[in-house]
Amino acid sequence: MEAVPRMPMIWLDLKEAGEFAFNAAVKKSAVSVPRDFEGCSTLRKYLGQLHFLQSRIPMGNGQDAAVPVTWTEIFSGKAVTHEDIKYEQACVLYNLGALHSMLGAMDKRVSEECAAGAFTYLRDHFPHSYSVDMSHQILSLNINLMLGQAQECLLEKSMLDNRKSFLVARISAQVVDYYKEACRALENSETASLLGKIQKDWKKLVQMKIYYFAAVAHLHMGKQAEEQQKFGERVIYFQSALDKLNEAIKLAKGQPETVQEALRFTMDVIGGKYNSAKKDNDFIYHEAVPALDTLQSVKGAPLVKALPVNPTDPAVTGPDIFAKLVPMAAHEASSLYSEEKAKLLRDVMAKIEAKNEVLDQFMDSMQLDPETVDNLDMYNHIPPVLMEKCAALSVRPDTVRNLVQSMQVLSGVFTDVEASLKEIRDLLEEDEAQERKLQELLGRVPPAPGSPPGLAEVSKECSKYLELHEKASFTNTELHRAMNLHLGNLRLLGGPLEQVRAALPTPTLSEEDKQVLQNLKRILAKVQEMRDQRMSLEQQLREMIQKDDITTSLVTTDRSEMKKLFEEQLKKYDQLKVYLEQNLAAQENVLKALTDANVKYAAVRKALAEVEQKWNTTVQTLVASYEAYEDLMKKSQEGKDFYTDLEGKVAKLLERARAACQASEAHRQQLLERELKKQPPPRPTAPKPPLQKKPLEMEAGGPEAAELGSLVLSELPEELRSLPPELLPGPLAQLPP
User: Where are stretches of biased composition, namely Basic and acidic residues (predicted)?
Assistant: First the structure.
């Protein structure tokens, strides 16, 4: 887009601290931090020092040095107390993420990835039972919100930098993916009850953003199609973007004016793109507009990530002020055990990711979506877009008749103009023929002075009108062709709905085909079941590793026995590893069964695809005919106006042509008579005996007529003797040749 409108972002409130038996000055500086990046730095330092303290003094839950820690729960405002220093760490970490979210929502649009990192570390390294605002569901929601907003910031920068359309589309699609995850969490009844009244506001904003950024993604996919000169794809992407933006506008009721302005701006951009693309395709390119679901879906490009939090990073925490309080042996041993757990997790995840990659590639190559494999239900109904057109025509029963009458009137005026132009052309050609004939008779070009004016102007105007008529004739022919193309469809749309439904193609499947289809769906369900089980086992493993803290055992274990203790402790993961191995091993058999089922499904798939393509084409053709009606009426009226004006001009020109041709004929007669008068009188000859018959009484072809003719013609000048009788003056015109 030419500019980048901004959407508001969600930011989180900071928790308020209560009782904690710690140095008052340290406590105050840690919980009353300024709302800026200096405050973030203070929280990180305090978090690091708490970690150092906790690793040396038994201040955890149920330990000897544990003291009450009180913080206010965000959503309810209640004070929550735990005798656990990790609760203090968790609340500080939460505030670190909340402060980053607050800074990220400001104009500079930064710090969202830091917020996601803080909440991710909090979710993965601390218990979720401390308070509602730090439950697993709420933290996962916060992470997806922050990642979505971080990706949104990246999208803004990408559009300002004029990055490639396909990349911008993928970035925008990933924004949608993050917000969809957040929306699923918001729709969860348990999460909704935890959030309270704020849930509705967040959900409404997130849902609106999902449609808005989906519209942005399809807008840039349309721009990419335009760059690739795929004009049919361009139309459907811009149409989809327009549909999604309209949904966003519906969901934006009650949002601030900045949101409304952003939506209006985006509507101007997308609406203009769609109207221009559709008009160009309808009248210039004529490419088939594919169905949106036949095009490859836009896969998101996750270009942001939760920035990792390292509580013990000396660059952040500064010097360890508790370094002398506790021996480091137990801490070092705990770190070694954590590394063993991390190694176990890495090994398992490497196997899972390898299998997932194979599965994803296989499913992509198959192009089998469980939700769209069987789309037979759509053939039982007239699609809403077509119902809308039928309803519109039902209240305009004269649509077809008006169009036909308008085109008939246009044809009549067109024919009249063509006939008048032909008559003018015939008159001019006849005049030219007479002029050439006179020149041949006189043996020279007749003198110009005294020639009638106007014929040249008439000829020039006639040529101009003929050129206009010829150009308009092509347009008129195209207009009639377009009318004939859409007339039958308009009649169908204006008729009974049963006929419209009958005109739409429907698939015909045998019982064997239906069994093949059901078998494929069953195996696809197995694939999804395998995926879900794998994700569940992975999550169980992660949670088990996160909760596995053997610090107490390490304190009482001799250093030489550490390795043996590690091995014994790691055995608790064997059962989960077995379940995961079984799940991964089953993948080969499931994919083999899916391959066999897909082979049998090939013929059914081809038949369904062909019917669906015909169905979509028919729907698009009928919709296009409806949308072409107004344009045809407008163009036919413009044609009538043009030819009515041209008819008046041609009629006047015809009158002028007739008058000019008559004047030209009279002028030629005058020239001929003047030429005859210029000839010298006949020389005197010997008297002839009187004629027995008067010239008018002589029989044609008789000897008397021949003799008189020879006498008279001998007295004519040499250049006039070859004139035809009809051009000779007086009685000479009656003589035989």
Answer: 665-678
Beta strands 17-20 and 69-72 are: antiparallel
E strand or H helix at 17: strand 17-20
What is the number of H-type helices and E-type strands within the chain? 21, 3
The tokens for 15 are 């928790």
Query: Could you tell me how far CA 659 lies from the centroid of its own chain?
Result: 62
- Per-residue pLDDT, 480: 64
Residues 6+ apart with CB under 8 A from 101: 9, 10, 11, 12, 111, 112, 115, 142, 145, 146, 149
Q: Indicate where the chain has its CATH 1.25.40.280 domain(s).
A: 1-162, 169-301
pLDDT tens across 540-558, in order?
A: 999 999 998 877 567 556 6
Q: Tokens representing 651?
A: 């009629």
CA triplet 455, 456, 460: central angle to 5 degrees?
A: 115
∠ CA 320-338-572, nearest 5°, is 150
* CA torsion, ordered 577, 581, 583, 588, to nearest 10 deg: 170
Tokens representing 603 are 């013929």
Q: What is the pLDDT of residues 637-660, one digit of tens each?
A: 777 777 777 777 778 878 888 888
Alpha-carbon distances, residue 71 vs 59, 79, 119, 132, 137 (angstroms): 17, 6, 17, 12, 20
Residues 369, 212, 102, CA angle at the centre, nearest 5°?
115
The b/e string for 493-518 (b: 16+ C-beta within 10 A; e otherwise) is bbeeeeebeebbbebeeeeebeebbe
The larger pLDDT score, comparing residue 123 to residue 372, is at: 123
Name the pTM for this structure: 0.47
Cβ-proximal residues to 110 (8 Å cutoff; 6+ apart), any chain:
103, 104, 153
Cβ–Cβ under 8 Å, residues 702 and 696:
no
SS (H, E, C) 39-105: HHHHHHHHHHHHHHHHCCCCCCCCCCCCCCEEEECCCCCCEEEECCHHHHHHHHHHHHHHHHHHHHC
Q: Which amino acid is at 205?
A: L
Residue 583, Cβ neighbours under 10 Å: how many?
A: 18
Q: Where are the alpha helices (DSSP H) in 494-573?
A: 497-503, 511-547, 551-555, 562-570
Query: Could you say which DSSP state residue 133 is in?
Result: G
Q: Closest Cα to residue 659, out of 419, 424, 463?
A: 424
CATH superfamily for 169-301 is alix/aip1 like domains (1.25.40.280)
CB 527 within 8 A of CB 396: no
State the CATH architecture for 1-162.
Alpha Horseshoe (1.25)
pLDDT of 411 above 50:
yes
Cα 424 to Cα 411: distance, rounded to the nearest angstrom: 20
Closest CA to 49 of 407, 317, 442, 313: 317
Q: What is the pLDDT of residues 387-404, one digit of tens each?
A: 877 777 776 666 666 666
Distance CA 535, CA 553 (A): 31
The CA distance from 334 to 332, in Å, is 5
Report residue 309: phi and psi, to 5°.
Answer: -110, 130
Amino acid at 68: P
Cα 103 to its chain centre, rounded Å, is 34
Q: Which two tokens stand for residue 344?
A: 């176990």
CB 33 within 8 A of CB 75: no
> Mind giving me the DSSP string for 626-677?
HHHHHHHHHHHHHHHHHHHHHHHHHHHHHHHHHHHHHHHHHHHHHHHHHHHH
- Compute CA 642 distance to the chain's CA centroid, rounded to the nearest angstrom: 37
Tokens of 282: 């309808």
Alpha-carbon distance of 722 to 710, in angstroms, equals 13
